[in-house]
Amino acid sequence: MNLHYQVEGDGDTIVLIHGLFGSADNLGLIARSLKDQYKVISVDLRNHGRSPHCDQFTYRDMAADILAVLDSLNIDRFSLVGHSMGGKVAMAATDLAASRIQRLLVLDMAPVHYFVHRHENVFNGLREVTKHTVEKRSDAEQYLARHVMDPGVRQFLLKSFAKQEDGHYGWRFNVEGLIANYNTIMGWEEIPAYTGQTLFIKGQESDYILPEHREAISRQFPNAKAHLVANTGHWLHAEKPDTVNRIILNFLQAA
């Protein structure tokens, strides 16, 4: 899978991996904070952004896609920063290339299977938009609002609403492919213990990392550290960018 990606800066390589419904631009605030000291590679995962669509959608596949980008750039050693679903991709990469990973940073995601269906309203909204011929974002938002009540979530989703090759507007991500693979996205196949330097960054008000996940984290990432960002939810890097960027930089630069 030939992913779309962008490269900024120079130095040791940091790969930024977005979450579900996202794109490379979603971690732009992190990229801007790192690019003066590092080579920052921001990717569009398969079925997202400008990357190709595919029915095969496992974490192992997505991790292999990331490694293919790095191989094409002749980059052997690198660090990974992944948010949400992208955090699972980053964690899955440790099973494929543990010796190549310098540091692993996971933003608000645990290596567990989540059983709560969190995105039914989003999928209904995305499908609602695709039922209509839409020529501008404001019209798309009206259809989306029938199912997605939160204006912030609508604006996030609409970042991936763009003009297609046929001249009509549509979703850049593979809506039906994501729906078909939703159980895989929410799931997790436990991986062998990764003993490299690892940091989990949790939003205090988020329920993606919970006390009952500690055993699974310590089993798969026995040397992991944790950092709690106060008064933030799942989108901690957008809610408190300065704080999160400082935590990331401190971890990357620690002896």
Approximate shape: globular
Tally of DSSP helical segments: 11
Reading off the top of the CATH hierarchy, the class of the largest domain is best stated as Alpha Beta
Computed Rg: 18 Å
CATH architecture classification of the largest domain: 3-Layer(aba) Sandwich
Number of domains: 2
Through-space gap between termini: 35 Å
Q: In what order do the strands lie side by side in the largest sheet?
A: 1-3-2-4-5-8-9
Protein name: Esterase
Keywords: Hydrolase
GO molecular function, one term: hydrolase activity
Domain AB hydrolase-1: 14-246
What does the model show?
It comes from Photobacterium aquae. The two termini are 35 Å apart. The longest helix is centred in the N-terminal third of the chain and has 14 residues, at 59-72. The chain contains 11 helices and 9 strands. Helix 1 crosses helix 11, helix 2 (59-72) crosses helix 3 (85-97) and helix 4 packs across helix 5. The mean pLDDT is 95. Helix 3 links the parallel strand 4 (78-83) and strand 5. It folds into 2 domains: 5-114 and 187-253, Alpha/Beta hydrolase fold, catalytic domain (Rossmann fold, 3-Layer(aba) Sandwich), CATH 3.40.50; 120-180, no CATH class. It is globular, with a radius of gyration of 18 Å. With 255 residues, it is α/β, with parallel strands linked by helices. Helices cover 38% and strands 18% of the residues.
Short characterization:
With 255 residues, the protein is α/β, with parallel strands linked by helices. The protein has helices at residues 28-34, 59-72, 85-97, 120-130, 137-144, 151-158, 175-180, 182-186, 214-220, 236-239, 241-253, and strands spanning 5-8, 13-17, 39-43, 78-83, 101-107, 161-163, 169-171, 197-203, 224-229.
